[in-house]
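Chapter review: from sequence to fold.
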Amino acid sequence: MSTLEPRHGARVWALIALPLVAQLAFVAIGASILAQSTDAPPKASFYNLPHALLLLAAYIVFGLTSLVVARRLGNPRIVLAVRRTRLLRAIGLSGLALVVGIAVSALLEPIFHGSAGQQLDPGPFPGTTTSFVAVVLTGFTVIVGAALTEELYFRGLLYNHLDQRWGVAAAIVGSAGVFGIAHFQPNTFPVLFALGLILAVLRLRTASIWPGVAVHAGNNALAFLALLLAAA
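The token string follows.
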């Protein structure tokens, strides 16, 4: 449980929702602009530099907005659970969480076909320098940017407020549910919800988001590599 004094009300919930709204609005506006200025098909976004820059910028907006909201709610290090934790214990728990996450994804994928539902086939690599830069930038964003900013928000800001408002069980289940819903892919919700539960429990056991960032990054790295290998 956080040591911050609980704060409730519609205004606080509006602040909590602000990072998601800001990111969604930024992506919608940016995608609309790109759609009018480029002929690249959506499946080629891995190899399209403007798309890669938009994705990176969207996560920067998400992360910065989360930091701004955290400052409004109290000490950002407490609100976001940006704390040191016992290294060896965190490594052990993180390794276990990553293995469990991979196993759960493998079990649920044949049932819900989440990967197919995302339609993330990038197509063959065009072989240009620009497309190579785009792939590297997209990989960095997905592996590092998404892992860091999503943990700051879902297992930091949102988890902390739900914990204050309704307790740890609500924080674990609620943050996992919003994490799954926020990706706007119904077929992937079961896998994302399960991953969210694992990351939330890891945050509870370590009192820090850093182990979750590592697990999230590892999970995303494996998924991104699998996509690239499938397109090769």
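Two observations follow directly from the output. Confidence is low (pLDDT under 50) at residues 1-5. Residues 10-231 form one domain.
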